[in-house]
From TrEMBL:
Gene3D superfamilies: E3 ubiquitin-protein ligase SopA (2.160.20.80). This is Thylakoid lumenal 15 kDa protein 1, chloroplastic. Pfam families: Pentapeptide (PF00805). GO terms for cellular component: chloroplast thylakoid. It comes from the Eukaryota. InterPro entries: 5peptide_repeat, At2g44920-like. Signal peptide: none annotated.
Length: 219
């Protein structure tokens, strides 16, 4: 048995140089082909251009995602401070020299800062939350509004330091610290901390003019 299939030929108009191939009218007797025709005939433009914006947006999102995935790990720990690109949070910075530096709002959370030198440093609003500052030199430092919660300041030198409004909640330790001329105005201390510091508090802060004992509300 033989079968013969007759396929009608499509007659396509000649293309004008400015005509998009997708805007060619299809044969009226082939509805299945008509369904493939884009709405281009109504917009008089290439459908590919309509895809440009979503594709470009997707590309931008992909690039941003990639940049976040492969960003330098130091960027995640810079904190709010201006200390270059160096990581200062959760690091061992024992003996590091930060003397005289401007470290406003710098993030030193949970860092080991034993014997570090912060003499005369501007540390306004810096965070030393749960940091180890054993034996650190904080003399003449501006520590206004700094977070010293849970910090270990054992044997730290706080001579003439300005701690106005600093946080010292929790088990912040001042054991053996030198506090001559330090200003503790508005520092929320526990009664036992205050009583301990008042035992050897003396001097007057050269910046604020406040006596250390007065700022500690010593009796």
């Amino acid at each position: 048995v033989s079968f013969s299939l007759k396929i009608p030929m499509l007659s396509l108009p000649k293309l004008h140089p400015s005509t998009s191939p997708l805007s060619i009218p299809l044969h009226p007797h082939h509805p299945e082909l008509q369904n493939l025709q884009f709405s281009e005939n109504q917009r008089h433009g290439s459908p590919l251009s309509s895809l440009g914006k979503p594709i470009a947006a997707a590309s931008v999102i992909a690039l941003l995602s990639a940049s976040l995935c492969f960003a330098h790990p130091a960027l995640a720990f810079k904190g709010g401070g201006p200390y270059g690109q160096e990581v200062t949070r959760g690091q061992d910075l024992s003996g590091k020299d930060f003397s005289g530096k401007t470290l406003i709002k710098q993030d030193f959370k949970t860092s080991i800062l034993r014997m570090a030198n912060f003499k005369g440093a501007k540390l306004v609003g810096a965070s030393f939350f749960d940091a180890d500052l054993t034996g650190a030199d904080l003399s003449d430092a501006d520590l206004r509004g700094a977070d010293l919660s849970l910090a270990n300041l054992t044997k730290a030198n706080l001579t003439n330091a300005n701690l106005e409004g600093a946080l010292a909640t929790g088990n912040t330790s001042f054991r053996g610290s030198i506090i001559t001329g330090a200003d503790f105005t508005d520092v929320p201390l526990r009664d036992d901390q205050r009583e301990y510091l008042c035992k050897f508090a003396d001097g007057v802060n050269p910046t604020t003019g406040n006596a250390t004992r007065d700022t500690l509300l010593c009796k």
